[in-house]
Amino acid sequence: MPEPTTCPGCGLVRASAARITHGYIGASAACWELYGQVLAREYGAYATHANHRVSVDAYAAQHPGVDGPQAMRSVAMHLMRLCLVYERGMPPAAGRGVAPRLLSQPPDVGWLEPPADRGAVTVADVAAAAGPDEHLVRVDDWGRSVWGAWAAHHATVRRWLDATLAPT
What are the residue boundaries of the structural domains of the chain, listed by start? Predict the structure, then answer.
């Protein structure tokens, strides 16, 4: 049995034989594997899952990686989408359509120092859901938890979002 590892993103302690990680998302292989299982459930059994974009945004923002161009833009885009959902009332499913615009030219996007605590809810909580209804609730709790954890940067994220969505 492999030794448990601690995820540098969310703090999840989990044993796994997995070795695959993401190129710039800062997650342990065991955490990344569990996230893959959650995504498989969302694309498969829960194919009509309305909060899928929140799963993607929460995971990426909770696992920001280290300062670099891809990680910087990823964190910015995922936090802007969480802001749209939790502060501006955008339906989570609409997040896919707005992503290209958020990635195109956000002004002065820079690295945001990740909070030490990135939220109490993790992918493990979502993976433990007992069915599609509970899954939806846990994903929403996860998104809220992660968005709240980044509170020190909310004003910056709102500014980026306003500038990105402003008419040209």
Answer: 49-165
